Amino acid sequence: MVSRRLAEFLLRSAVRRWPAELHDELSREWQAELHVLAERGQRWRMLRFAASLAASRAGTPVVDRTRFDSQARRTAATLLLAPPACLAILMIAVVGSGALVGSLFGVVDANLSQVPVLSALTAGLAVLLARRVGRGAARTALRGPLRRALGVMLPLGLTVVAVEYALNTTTDDLIRTAPGLVVWLAGLALVLWGAGTLAGRGRVRAAWWLGVLAALAVADAAVVLTVVNHIPGGPGTVVDGVAQYDSVNRVSAPLWLFTCWTDWSFGLPRPTQWEIFLIGDLVELQPFLYLACTPYALAYVIGAARPADPVAVPAPVSSPA
């Protein structure tokens, strides 16, 4: 027992001498070798192994550099290709929801809204992408919750900004969309950092709760900011009982994101159907873009940060007397 603890201490000293990005990989490999030697009862060999690593100079090729480079390439490919995949999800959902509602027209109530179908398709496809990406996230080359959060958000932010720039050709349109987009990108980066930190401590369930709830709050704040900046809250001047411009009552602000996804006020008096139309016409596809991108981002940072499953240690077999 003492020899095992001494060997682990020597290994920790050896790991600290290497670059930070290699700490986790080196520690796993060396601990696995130490476990094998300890299981065989080769205590002196275990101590020699740990002592040689502690005394060796950092830079000795103790890891497969080819494998590390391949890991970095896979990480870069995932982070660069996932944002366009999120956009593809949204386009498929838009086309699919239109075709589905069109095929049901005349069979189902003619007032069937395309918006809930679009939201359901977007969420379903986004979860499928998140599951696929999350399974391979554990092999990421990024170390630390901040690096993972920035690694996800930088390509995602550049892609979303490029799409908004392409869709909004005038300066007024860009000014309209920019504040909400900035709030969403900055807020989601903080959410990913917090969720990755919790997952790295082994609190995976808490990381998912924090990630989902905080991401919803950030997306809602982005929608609220856009609406508040461009649609008045009161009726303003009234002539002959008619308001002179459109307005949206602020009392329903926490529901605006969800009304954009459902085209429904959840049975409450606010927002009215006209207010829902004004909100949706202003924010356009932004809420659905948030819905398409968020599951992938959370799945990647949590999957990359969660601890590896412990190696099962077989019970010692007692030799016959």
Detailed description of the structure:
The protein has a two-stranded antiparallel sheet. It starts with a helix and ends in a 16-residue tail after the last helix. It is 70% helix and 1% strand. The chain has eleven helices and two strands. Strand 1 and strand 2 (242-243) form a beta hairpin.
SSE string: HHHHHHHHEEHHH
**Number of separate strands:** 2
Largest sheet: 2 strands, antiparallel
Number of helices: 11
Structural class, by secondary structure, is mainly alpha
Keywords:
disordered C terminus, elongated, 11 helices, single chain, 2 strands, mainly alpha, 321 residues
In short:
With 321 residues, the protein is mostly helical. The chain has helices spanning 2-16, 23-39, 43-55, 65-104, 114-136, 145-167, 171-200, 204-230, 256-262, 273-283, 286-305; strands spanning 238-239, 242-243.
